[in-house]
Amino acid sequence: MKKIFILAVCVFFAAAIAYTEEYFHDDAGISMWFPDSWEVSIESQNYIFATHPTGEVGILYLVFDADEIETKLDALDKELENLVDDLEMIEDSMSEETLNGMNAMVTAATGTAGGIPVNIGVILVATPNEKVLLIVGMIEAEKYDEHEKILDEILGRVKPL
After folding, report:
1. Quick count: other Cβ atoms within 10 Å of Cβ 158?
2. Which of 57, 88, 89, 110 has the highest Cβ tally under 10 A?
3. What's the start-to-end Cα distance of the chain, in Å?
């Protein structure tokens, strides 16, 4: 039961499974990496969804033109409202950061999905080629400490080409 939500998200986002670990987005000028054991679904070059083998963690990467930001964030809000009950932004969680030299906005939320408490992270990254990378991660709240190190590594390997 605990993994039903994450698996449902995987089915929703999945189109094809790729078996390589490093991905390049030439238009955005970035590379990204996932561990070999993760399932990576690629709907298009602009849409990648990866899940931990246990289904406890899911990460969406979406690349788009900067002028589409309002439309994409509105769509994300609606999708999260449909998938997550009791969605609540974490107070004072919005911050400006850098991710390997790229400007980023970071925020976090909590809620429940399929009855399971979840933590949600959202990062908007200004890529070198004037695109936006939207990263949305969701993890079972009680599993965060267990996966923190690999999540830091995955985010740390989102780099400019």
Report:
1. 22
2. 57
3. 40
The more confident residue out of 7 and 144 is: 144
Structural contact between residues 16 and 129, judged by C-beta atoms closer than 8 angstroms: no
What is the C-alpha to C-alpha distance for residues 92 and 14, in angstroms, rounded to an integer?
A: 33
Q: What are phi and psi of 85, to 5 degrees?
A: -85, 150
Q: Which domains does the chain have, with CATH numbers?
A: 4-160 (3.40.1000.10)
Residues 20, 26, 31, 32, Cα dihedral to 10°: -60
DSSP string, 24-40: EETTTTEEEE--TTSEE
- The whole-model pTM stands at 0.85
Residue 121 and residue 108 in contact, taking contact as beta carbons nearer than 8 Å = yes
- 35 vs 149: CA distance, rounded Å: 12
Q: What is the pLDDT of residues 9-61, one digit of tens each?
A: 444 444 334 344 789 999 999 999 999 999 999 988 899 999 999 999 999 99
